User: Fold this.
Amino acid sequence: MADDDLAVSRGVRIPRRELVVSFSASGGPGGQHANKTASRVELLYDVEHSTALLPVQRERVIAKLGTVVRIVVDDERSQLRNRAIAEERLVARLSEALHVEAPRRKTKPSRGAKERRLQGKKQRSETKANRRPPRHDT
Assistant:
């Protein structure tokens, strides 16, 4: 079922059945509500055994994030909202880990850029020369 997948990138969709989600009581302030509701979400994604990633992608993610990606969220009072935030954070971390930087191509400065740089240096030199007191050659 495609609707039950998390879209990470154009070619990567993680089935929700591969995510292990557990809930617990959130610590910190909040009074009675925090003490009796299990709104804290812990989401685990086993990269090593995932069927959603190609071998190259799996190696890249394991190198950057490890074999198991763990996301813990207790930002909101709602368990449903915390789960959505956890999934968003998982998608963000995985897409960042899967991103490949394009190789840098060497370029040369244009003739105009060289001329502007030299003109700027000449102008700066004249400005500094004008600050000096005049020379008396007598």
In short: The beta strands are 5-7, 13-15, 19-24, 40-46, 68-73. The chain has one domain: 2-98. The chain has a mean pLDDT of 88.
